[in-house]
Amino acid sequence: MQSSSTAVTLQKTPLNGVHRAAGARMVDFGGWDMPVEYSGIISEHMAVRTSVGLFDVSHMGEIEIRGPRALELVEHLTPNAASKLQDGQAQYSALLYPNGTFVDDILVHRMAADHYFLCVNASNQEKDYQWIVDQNKIGAEVEFASEKYVQLAIQGPRALATLAKLTDVDLAAIRYYWFTRGEVLGVPAIIARTGYTGEDGFEIYIPPQEGERLWNAIFDAGMEFGILFCGLGARNTLRLEAAMSLYGHEIDDTTTPYEAGLGWIVKLQKGGFIGRDALVAQKEKGVPRRLAGFEMRGRGIARDGYRVFVDGSDAGRVTSGSPAPFLQKNIGLCMLPSTKGELGSSIEIEVRSRLVEAEIVATPFYSRKK
Q1: Are residues 30 and 166 in the same domain?
Q2: Which of 11, 37, 146, 178 is 20 to 30 A from residue 30's alpha carbon, by CA?
Q3: What is the CA angle 194-196-201, rounded to 5?
Q4: Phi-psi bin for 341: left (phi > 0), alpha (psi -120 to 50), beta?
């Protein structure tokens, strides 16, 4: 009997060869061949917390919405109030299904009154694009623009000093969750003061053909500060310390913003949007479960998917768990019934067939000093 197998071809960012040449450990991340670490997750994490790190996040997706009805479409698609944005301002938001759960979490950038730029998760970008197209009944122009951009993240307290060497843009004037157009080493760029690490920093969007040159130039500019190339491993531990949600973990197509502790992105007063009726009903009835942060008190590391017990009963699952390199604690997030898991209460997590004590704590676990 003849058998056949289909090899999976991983997608690659334009910097794939650079990562391999730098000795990165590469992994399959949602269908992308991506660096998980270079020098080590802990050293990369600490570089971002104390100085500066450089990430290739070009696997993320970009979708652009244009035309006189662009804002109308964005407002219909998202629960946050895009109408409140000014030119050069960004907001954290979501695409929701009619039942109020997540298609994806996204960043919405207002380029102009008739032009919105969405940054979406890598593994969801084709799904997100198709969802937007299917909901577009009003003739706005929707472009799948991921191939137009390389996205680099310069993160950490010395991010500004590093990037300032390569641009005449007044980086200090860019407020958090604002952006501007400018040049980096003569290359046209969108320069956003955003990130997924809990630190100050910038994410720049540039043409793919300039990615390698700018990657190397940013690294050279940061050498005096001890810059490190950083992979997805450190990106994950950094965002967990900052208690930032990750699609497929804290949020997915079974989770609403209220359950995920993201009710602040839901602006019911703005009027109609996809999922609004379901969210109104959930808010009135009461949210059945909620996301909670915990610190391990016993010896053990809570990993994603581990069972959580409250008063001896199986009550939920760990959505994300890991050692926190900067805090030097073992931490995590879990989804629990809303009647369980008050701050300071004790829970148990099943770690390799044994129950280990943990305590519900306030999040974020880490907040940078302003």
Answers
A1: yes
A2: 178
A3: 45
A4: left
Beta-sheet strands, E only, within 12-86: 25-29, 32-37, 53-56, 61-66
Is the residue at 262 inside a domain? Answer: no
Distances (CA, A) of 364 to 72, 283, 361: 33, 23, 9
What confidence score (pLDDT) does residue 369 get?
Answer: 81
The answer for residues whose C-beta is within 8 angstroms of residue 265's C-beta and 6 or more apart is 79, 80, 91, 92, 93, 94, 257
Contact 287, 271 (CB under 8 A): no
pLDDT more than 70, % of the chain: 98
Find where tokens 């910097």 sit: 15
Averaged pLDDT, 135-154? 98
Here the tokens at position 171 are 């980086």
**Omega before 68 cis (within 30°)?**
no
Q: Are residues 45 and 124 in the same domain?
A: no
- Among residues of the chain, what percentage have pLDDT more than 90? 97
> Is the confidence at residue 281, as pLDDT, over 70?
yes
Tokens of 179: 């952006």
Strands 354-361 and 228-230 come out as unpaired
Query: Which one of 104, 138, 172 terminates a domain?
Result: 138
Within a domain: 270: no
**Could you tell me which residues are beta bridge partners of residue 93?**
106
A 10 A CB-CB count for 355 gives 16
- In angstroms, the CA 263 to CA 280 distance is 11
Count CB neighbours of 302 within 10 A.
27
Give the neighbor-by-neighbor strand order of the sheet with 228-230. Answer: 179-184, 187-192, 201-206, 150-155, 53-56, 228-230
Bridge-based pairing of strands 25-29 and 32-37 is: antiparallel
Checking if the pLDDT of 3 tops 90, the result is: no
